[in-house]
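Throughout our pipeline, every protein is held as a single compact record rather than as scattered files. This encoding replaces a full spatial description with a residue-level series of whole-number codes. The remainder of this section carries one protein's record, kept here as part of the documentation.
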Amino acid sequence: MSLTIETALPATGDVKAVPAMKRGFLGRCPACAKGRLFGRFLKVVDHCEACGTEFHHHRADDLPPYIVIFIVGHLVGYGILMTETKLEMPMWVHLATWPALTLFLCLALLQPVKGAVVGLQYALGMHGFGAARTTKNASASCEKVDPVFRD
């Protein structure tokens, strides 16, 4: 005869992918949207100062630069194509405008895209976020859970 105890954890800590990515894109904690996600330009903080969610185990790696290169390449490529077909500009204007615009767009988009990737990882429970969220929910709701005993 075995005794199984099942508990039903509330889904209070579950965050959908789009809101978590939006919070990360804005540089906020994907869990609570109150704490900061970045300590420096691309350095993710170890944990949220508002809710305590740990971020040290995230693995954004090379995906944010790939996404930024894809977006900026399409925008700048379209801009160059339209400028060449619709306007006549000297070559020195092209050489001054497009590299500067490319550099500005890459630097402006890199941190928000990395935040969105970290938010997506949090929402999907990837790379330790799932275990950390389960542990956090379990410790926060220990008093609220009614055990169900089965025989």
